[in-house]
Amino acid sequence: MRADRSERSHGLPQGEPERLTSEFLSLLTEAERADLMRRGRRRQWERDETVCTEGERTDWVLVLLSGWAKVSSATARGSEVLLAVRGPGALLGELAAIDHQPRSATVTALERLTALVVPVAEFTAHLEANGRVSFLLMRLLTERLRDADRKRIEFGAHSTTGRVATRLVELAERFGQRTATGLRVAVPLSQDELAGWTGASREAVSKALGVLRAYGWISTGRRQIVVHDLEALRSLTS
User: Fold this and answer.
1) Of 154, 177, 202, which one is at a domain's C-terminal end?
2) Contact 83, 76 (CB under 8 A)
3) What pTM did the predictor assign?
4) Is the same domain home to 56 and 70?
5) Phi/psi of residue 155, each to 5°?
6) Measuring CA to CA, which residue among 70, 63, 74, 73 is closest to residue 23?
7) Pick from 88, 106, 86, 87: which is nearest to 96 by CA?
8) Same domain (yes/no): 138, 174
């Protein structure tokens, strides 16, 4: 990646990748991927369609092939808490496959999804036939546990603006698409969904976004965010 002036203005140090984590499917070898693909079937979901519901019992895991999904949980008062955003290559439903307990969260399509649906028995057989994948799954679960711990710390350590900035940094680093003006977040999140992800009200998130826009660090549109100064956003997350 060329270290030109526009790269520096977007807050990306020379040589830093735009996506800092790899999704499950991209970590597999060609043979491992082929083995997994033959064990499942493709299925599509439309935008806002529910893929699985918290508390239900299903017997499959999901690998996203295209599109974006949100993982959420409902509070006792009925509000939605957004736990994660998953994109192409992500593995979903692995916890229920491992412990055979009900789904721990609801997965909803943020746009049209294409995914590989793999029955639990076939997924287990895939792990048994490919020992390295079992190790990758362990690493994936560890990474998600660490991420959950970091987010719990953020709620007590940062203001709403700081938490919003933290989520924008994550979105830009993982899903940012480089444009002439910055990193366009490819995930079509609404302000309500961003509020559910930061543990704040929609009004507080709207105010925080207004502050960041006023600084010139981001610009926003309908379900669209462009990060102009990633380094400045990072300064609010430390």
Assistant:
1) 154
2) no
3) 0.76
4) yes
5) -60, -30
6) 63
7) 106
8) no
